[in-house]
Amino acid sequence: MIKVVLLLLSLCLVEQINAQKTDFRFSDTLRDRSYDYLYERIEKWEKDSSKQLLYLQYFLLKAKQEKNAKEIINGYRNYLFYLPEKLKLVYADSMISTAVKSKDNALIGSAYLSKGIVYYGQKKHRRALDNYLVANNFISQTNDQYLIYKVKYSIASIKYYLGFYNEAISLFRECIDYFKTDKENDRAYLNSIHSLGLCYNKIGNYGLCTDINNLGLVEGKRLGNEEMKDYFIHSEGINEYFKNNLSISIKKITYALPTLLQNKDFGNEAVGYFYIGKSYWDLKKTNLGLSYFKRVDNIFEKKGYIRPDLRENFEILIDHYKSKKDLKLQLHYIRKLIKADSILNKRYRYLSGRIHKEYDTKQLLAEKENIETSLENRKYNDLILTSIIVGLFSLLLFIAYRYIRNKRVYKRKFDELMKKNEMPKTEGKSIQSNVLDINPETVNSVLSQLEKFEREKKFLEKDLTSIKLAVAFDSNARYLSKIIQHYRGKKFVEYINDLKVDYLISQLKENKQLRKYTNKALAEEVGFSSTQRFANAFFARTGMPTAYFIEEIKTRL
After folding, report:
1. Domain HTH araC/xylS-type, which positions (predicted)?
2. d(CA 170, CA 43)
């Protein structure tokens, strides 16, 4: 509900800002100013939001009045850099809407790419990739080299995130070669260098990573662009950890953190905290290390940000509190790790599948479109695929049939079971001593002891055998088995198992706490020697699995 309210407020604010045609007019001093002039003023007043907003409005209104689609899109894109995160996507959608109306592939692709970049900045990589792939479909139909390489950079960033480092290195190198010659895109050039250094660190080439980071610092200084300076230092700080220069690692990452906090870059902030924590941990400064690991956890809790190397953060915390015998905190971080694994598995499986199916495959097909394909092979492959699909469909139908049939059978058996106040009595036939060729007094004695044995629930004893029970009855195992077979109508093992199961069913009906037990715990409760024997005995007696019986009892009682 809160999200809906925020979205409505955002839309209202956008309408207020954009509904300028009737009550908003250019001042005479700005009326004939160029878009470049307005953009320079937007950048100049970055620290004064009220003045900056004025120029943002002028820029967009000017473009709308001139019906200049390209500049309208640029006007919306300007807002993406300076608005709060919640409003950025609203403007991104307006930008896409304008681009689609223009029917210009470059503008449409650029708009989707910008929206993807917003998502990437928010660490929503799945949505970022979706927009990158749409952008690529449009941009690949143009000759706009800048946009083509901007898509390459974005896809390379996803590949880095997924762990396809060598593929990312190849793309980032292409981007470096292109953006180095583009005098208007220093930041793109420096970003590409920074990302390349990260890749080299990931493949273990720490020396080359250092060289790339130093190159980035030198090039930034040469170009008069210091925006990426702290990011290169942050990258080198992490690299120094892997070179076992722990104190230098802490110093460099700590130096870069204020910039990350100012940029609200919680992803790199979390990574920085993790490697500072690891450095302190390796220096045997446990408490300092723990304080940084908990900062990583705090970002995970608030932002849901996790990547594969940060998974170790929770493993360290679990092992630490296990060594301290702090079960509460150990369990807490085990749950965090399970949650992290769930996010990683879903996110990476989706991203990996799509980037190879919809980007790499598209590129591969573009390179191979002139290669002839055998029609016969296609037919053969189609036939194989059809056979596989038919086979899978048949298997699914069979599984569904078995599942539905079993559910019906279990329900019928459960209903029959519940109609009785208790399980069927184990007593069998009336006493006929002469049938068994056993002394009548012996038969009467054994039957009397059996009744007492059943009444006192002694059948719950573990590892009970006919020999043990015969000794307790002052009889012999052969006589005991014959009497049970005749008067209880079943063999010894079945007789004991049924008594245990009948008793458990009566308890499950009354004891809600018992319904929470696992099969292993239930088996222990009634004296079965193994979980599997218990499960088999329960099914044999009731015609349904334990789990089904318990779920039905929870629903009905």
Report:
1. 444-552
2. 33
Distances (CA, A) of 216 to 189, 232, 551: 9, 7, 62
What CATH code would you report for 1-143?
A: 1.25.40
Distance CA 18, CA 58 (A): 10
* Residue pair 351/313 in contact by the 8 Å Cβ criterion: no
| Burial status of residue 191 (CB atoms within 10 A of its CB: 0-12, 13-18, 19 or more) | buried
CB 306 within 8 A of CB 340: yes
446 three-state secondary structure: helix
The Cα angle at residue 128 between residues 123 and 132, in degrees rounded to 5? 150
- In the chain, domain spans: 1-143, 436-556
CA proximity to 544, closest of 398, 421, 411, 424: 411
**pTM of this structure:** 0.53
Q: What is the DSSP string of 178-217?
A: HHTT-TT-HHHHHHHHHHHHHHHHHTT-HHHHHHHHHHHH
Distance (Å, whole) CA 310 – CA 275: 9
* Local structure of 429: helix, strand or coil: coil
| Secondary structure in 3-state letters for 118-136 | HHHHCCCHHHHHHHHHHHH
> How does pLDDT run across 246-292, given as a tens digit for each residue?
999 999 999 999 999 999 899 999 999 999 999 999 999 999 999 99
> What residues contact 375, with CB distance under 8 A and at least 6 apart?
none
Q: Write the CA distances from 222 to 186, 194, 215, 231, 255, integer angstroms.
A: 10, 16, 10, 17, 22
Q: Is the pLDDT of residue 372 over 50?
A: no
The pLDDT of residue 221 is above 90 = yes
Q: Are 163 and 132 in contact (CB under 8 A)?
A: no
Fold of 436-556: Arc Repressor Mutant, subunit A (1.10.10)
What the block records as the tokens of 200 is 């080299």
3 state SS of 511: coil
Q: Does residue 88 surpass a pLDDT of 90?
A: no
Q: Please report which confidence band the pLDDT of residue 28 belongs to, taking 50, 70 and 90 as the band edges.
A: low
Cβ neighbours of residue 458 under 8 Å, at least 6 residues apart?
none
Query: What is the DSSP annotation of 13-40?
Result: HHHHHH--TTT----TTTTT--HHHHHH
Q: Helix 105-121 crosses helix 69-82 at what angle (to 10 degrees)? A: 0
Taking all residues of the chain, what is their mean pLDDT, rounded to a whole number? 81
- Separation of CA 536 from chain center: 37
